[in-house]
Structure prediction request, 756 residues.
Amino acid sequence: MLGASLLVAASAATLSAPADAHPVDDGPTVEVTIDTFGPVAPKPDQPVVIKGRVTNTSSVTFENPQALACIDRTRLSSTSALEAIPTEQSVPMDKRDSCSNLTNDSHTFQPFEQPLAPKQTVNFSLTVPWKEWRISGETGVYVVGVTFRGDTPDGGRVMAGRARLLMPVIGKQPLKRAVNTALVVPLRFRPTQLGGRNFANEALAKALAPRGELGRLLALGAQRKVTWLADPATLDEVKQMAKGYVILGQNGQTTPGTGQAVAAAWLKEFEASTSKGNEVVLLPYGDPDVAGLLDSGAPLKDLVGQARTKTEHSGGELTRTFTNGLWLEGGAAASRYLGAASGGFTGATSDDLNLVNSASWTARTRPVLTSTPVYNVLTPESPDHTVRTVIADSALTEGGPDPETADSPLQVRQRFAAVTALIAAAGTNTASVVALPPRGWDPNGTATAALAASLSSLPWIKSADLGTIVAANPKPQATRAPTAPRTNGVLPEAQMQAVSQLDSATTTMQSLLVDGSQLPEVMTQALLRSTSSSWTGHPEEARYFTSIERGSASQQLGKVHLINAKVDSGQRKEIKVNLAGSKGTFPLTIANDTSWSVRVGIVVTPVNRTDLKIKTPQTVVLGPGQKWTPRISASAEQNGLIQANAQVTNAAGEPVGKPQQILIQASQYGSVGWIFVGAACALLFGTSFVRIYRRIRIERRNPAAVTTATEPTEPAESEEPGDETPDPAHGRHAANGVPEQTPGPSLKEGVGSKDG
Prediction:
């Protein structure tokens, strides 16, 4: 019997009612929990033991309480009939009548000696003789359960709680065939490695512990055949943890990690499991949100192919043998995603495994899975127009029939047994099924463990792996892909924006390197991890991870920078240069402080002027630790102060780091200034020419007057000697001893420009 409990919240307020169901008034209710049920699939004449407990969740006391076994005697003989079981969600608890109480034998019901007070819990144990079920001995599935009845304070006796499950019955006639069953166990976890030995938290270490999620799942392969569906990014992190790691706090401080021994033990067990033959299918690196990335378009859609290529190239370092795989479900299984993600990456082969959950289709359009799970799904968008796909039967993990407890271990076990028993009884040809728990379905691994236990306890089940099942179906039939809404990503918009920023920084860094293949692997890993669908439900951890990685990428880009000697209070100030003349040059120096050779360029763009013309120099290669000082050729039509930005670029012209502000002082004659200078010169020389011309004409017309005018004269008697001093150079007298000024404009007036 299964020791894990089945918790049934009988209150209608806690039920997951269908969208079209109306709220119902259940009155006072209790929770009925079935802890064990056995045997899993009874044969005729075998008694069935049901054990559990009842907890009063209401505020009233129930008098004369009792637990009763119940059954719906409708024999279900097909898997489609299981899906049609009514949940009675819209029916008040006391009016639900699909499970009839058994009262003919005292072992089928149990009265409690004391009234059931609020918050009180009592245990029950019921043993139902075969004859009390009153059903045929044919193979089929029945809905059975336990109800609770008691008297309320108003005097009415009501059914205040119920729990149901599926009971497969194996008839006297032997089952017609075995069912080859591949159990696919996902080994994936949200990223915690920030790079190198730095981890964000201890969440992965806790999951690797024996009672943690990944610890429980890995234990399933110790004694049975399973197929591991592993994220290579998770395996990478476990390997680093086993070597040693530290936790990087948000304050920048580090503390030693505590999970080194746990990680080493988990890794050793994983290697032992693969060595003994358990198949490994490796997901794209980081298990990315395929639909979200493809919906985003270029350049993010290219990350899907990069993730698959990363797995193909590095998967051999993580496990001895592996198959490249893809896992899509829900809307992400539409043909536009399946076709794009299944190929087109380096290393893609026809042996790659593409996994899709059958719940991606509607019940009406779902392919038949009672014989084979392998189909060629039509994908008109892909080059081959079809993609070989393994369709996991979602019915094997649906549980039920009560939706509020569908994912409990007991419900999963009973549903798995019921579905496979019906498949085994339905035909004679070989039957194959694939059981793959949906994402986020089993957070602690207990339900998957119950499913795995059924592989060895149910006689009609034959364990297999995916490779065996695919090889047995070399010529799959074709089927249409599921339909899907316009967008189907699982990561929130904020996370996709953060991924886009990190992708831009990583691409810029790779283009900066002379040899792009030298891009640090940790940067590629960080980018792919930021796209992980495992971030679902952990938005704060995703935000912290991407912010750290963006900062790390920016730090690397910042090592290729302009040198600026102007520093004030620890802050870099603008670079100041002078530009003399209409054309000139000024130097700028770029330093490469990285460990790689880079190809860099520089672009200067004005901020407040349009007349500054800059000639961009050719890019150059700088080795580690080298500097480059190009002279920037510039010209300006106007003088004055020009604000500009100097930006280091990579070979593709993409900006590297932040721009540096520079101030350019332009000091030259503008075109208007040169016009003023020319006009002044013309006026000066023109005036002189006119005076000379007039003097010559006077000399030709009256030579005597000119002679007389040039002879010295005697001073007048009334004048004192020394009042005037003769000018020997011109034969004229100076005025007050000050030489005569030569008329003409100031040159400073001609240096102006449009801005003065």
The CA atoms of residues 295 and 394 lie 26 Å apart. Residues 1-22, 705-756 have pLDDT under 50 and may be disordered. The first helix runs from residue 79 to 83. The radius of gyration is 44 Å.
